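2024-03-11 09:14:02 DEBUG pipeline.ingest accepted 1 chain
2024-03-11 09:14:02 DEBUG pipeline.ingest length=389
2024-03-11 09:14:03 DEBUG pipeline.predict start
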Amino acid sequence: MFLKRLECSACGLEHEWSRLQNLCGSCNKPLFAIVDLAAASRTLSRERLAEREKSLWRYREVLPLPADVEPASLGEGGTPLIRARKFADDVDLWIKDDSLNPTQSFKARGMSVAVSMAKHLGATKLAVPSAGNAGGALAAYAARAGVEAHVFMPRDTPRANIVECRELGAHVTLVDGLITDCAAEISRRKANEGWFDTSTLKEPYRVEGKKTLGYEVAEQLKWQLPNVILYPAGGGTGLIGMWKAFDEMEALGWIGQNRPRMFAVQPAGCAPIVRAFEFGEESGAEVQDAHTIASGLRVPKAIGDFLILKILRESNGGAIAVDDEEMIRVAREVGTREGLFICPEGAACFAALKLLRSAGKIASGECVVVFNTGSGIKYLEAYDRGVGG
């Protein structure tokens, strides 16, 4: 293992990695894992990757778990990057389909690494607030690791997610409110209950699993990053993780200095990043009465919003909102044209592509990667009734 330390993403204060950590002890912001890339490069190279298993653990040297510790793994990562054939004929469009992960969403990546590290460092009870897919992923990987999972979900979470968590053995609590209310309940009870909080960016290792999205996209495009990435941002861990991965790969000598223009996509009913970006703010205000069928994007206030906004500006990208009706319509269009039953969060990115092309922010012929973060199977109620049905 080449993990050196944890470092605050805001104030830079160093923290010890060898014990359970949540947020920075000084400023209460997210911690990042800092890897000794020079040492990692002695055994990790682009050429050797071809010999390794098609999972995120093929990048083991840049992940935090000690080499002699067995990860809690269900085969996550290694998902396909599919060239779109019919949806957009004026751009070089690729679809990163993370619905093919265990638990049918990209949340498997972060939870595999986070649960593995939490167990290694002594945690026996893990808790998470979830609008659906993160809860299912925690339940699965906690079961795999032999630790308890406690999942707090809004009462109107899609039924498939609730059933999934329960069938995987998690203790499920339904809360009247939003994911922020679920997080507040965990915060209130975790000390007495002995829970380790695995909320988005409130521990250092979910982002390490998510950064493998960046490694995989680079590898699958033969180490040439795309011009544009469209990513559905609730908590934004994947977007933040990919940006971290790009910096790591440059330090390893795998890619150059060029970066994709990063666009965060949010629903019109819950778009704090979009508003903050448009007003030039460094952090977003909490959205009141947040609402959307894309349950994974119903995050009224992201703890890492300052990181997301910084990335969008550094990359010359942006933030764009899509309404629920358009998500439903575009999901069907993607299904009939590309044969993929995508989640509403992924559909939002395809809708955003149309808007950005119309606005001239994506040029003809550019290479664009759109992320589908989960399976449409988990959103049957939304698709069956449509919006307002």
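2024-03-11 09:14:41 DEBUG pipeline.report The mean pLDDT is 96.
2024-03-11 09:14:41 DEBUG pipeline.predict end
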